[in-house]
Amino acid sequence: MAEVLSPDEVDRQLGAGWERDDDEIVRVYEFDDYLDGVAFAASVGEVAEEEFHHPEITIRYEAVEVRLTSHEEGGITEKDLRLADLFDDEF
Hints:
Elements: H1 7-13, E1 19-21, E2 24-30, H2 34-51, E3 56-59, E4 63-68, H3 78-90
Antiparallel strand pairs: 1-2, 2-4, 3-4
Helix pairs in contact: 2-3
GO molecular function, one term: 4-alpha-hydroxytetrahydrobiopterin dehydratase activity
Enzyme class: lyase
Pfam families: Pterin_4a
């Protein structure tokens, strides 16, 4: 089981474009085309499945919102920050 990080630890380690929202980290990726966003969401899903840590993904017309938290641990852990970095690599 991973250790929940303090808000200060999360803020120090959070990558550009990500924000802390209570016990989640959130980023909205913007796209010029709906299908580009859908393809990105599919890529995020593949990475998440490989890591066996799954985000909440909301697909909008020109944006995809990704939310990460470690439900079993009850907050944000290193797993969430690692996955956020991997998603940014896909973008």
